[in-house]
User: What shape does this take?
Amino acid sequence: MPTLFDPLSLGTLTLPNRILLAPLTRCRAEESHMPGTLMAEHYAQRASAGLLITEATMVMAGNSAFWSEPGIYSAAQVAGWQQTTDAVHAAGGHIFLQLWHGGRACHPLLNNGQQPVGPSPIAIIGDEVHTPEGKKAYVVPRVLADDELPQIVAGFQQAAANAKLAGFDGVEIHAANGYLLDQFLRDGTNQRSSGRYGGSVANRARLLLEVVEAVCQEWDSHCVGVRLSPLNSFNDMRDSDPVGLAAWLAKRLDEYALAYLHVMRRDMFQQQAADILTPIRANYQGVLISNMGYTADEAATAIASGAVDAVAFGVPFLANPDLPARFRSGAPLNQADPDTFYSSGPAGYTDYPTLSMA
Assistant: This one.
């Protein structure tokens, strides 16, 4: 039976363990969404993970949802990310870039007045977005026409090519957490009544699958992962049949021989509850990664049982750059400071102590 500390084959990579860094938006990019030296230090500190998955990274200009998130659409950003990949590889790690479009979660104040876009004219309610003018309500997105979607697909493809230039080991397509691709997938946000991208599950998944195929033209499919969150209500998301959607997507994505499928197993706000991992595992034969709220013991049990192949850790890895060593030794974990999750500078980002500093 595999353990947390056994190697895992991921395409041509051999991961040293099955303890992965989940993608974590930390808002530390520099002006013009530039990744800088501080981000390189942060990721290199966590290079003992089996795999590092970066924070959500803008594939195209004009779709910022966090003000200070990084991009991968300019030559300067490619050069900036090269600092991170060089630092991670020098530390013996592997790193994938998460490709992302914010869709309706963006705001005009973050994008030079540009209205966000989405599958249907439905704004996020129940939350506000941080902007240079303080917290603001989300706005109703402009509906993307079918003939605009090839431009979105091309943006993901170019970003994937840029990620290769920046030295990444692969890419993860972000189709979770209420961002653009997820907005098309779930019927709570995709209420298109005509055209090729609304209605049936196959139509709602069309944009994601077109992105997968385009990205796989730049990378071998064994270097491409996909992240899903059929249950998560973050960003005011819902679906009438999350289990059915999860099973359908797992079966369809299994046809691509991907590096992995990365699944957020729960709803962080507990508005929906269901077992989505069992039907996903039944329909997906490749490497399955799960995420959300695992302890080391629960992750070990899930991996040993074959329910999943690896577990991605978010907040524990945020506060413990040497998380695999702490899990192996049973050492206590540093507690994360939520006040610094989305602040600026090194505090709460690169200053968490390791065991060697104790």
Notes: Residues 189 and 290 are 24 Å apart (CA to CA). The mean pLDDT is 97.
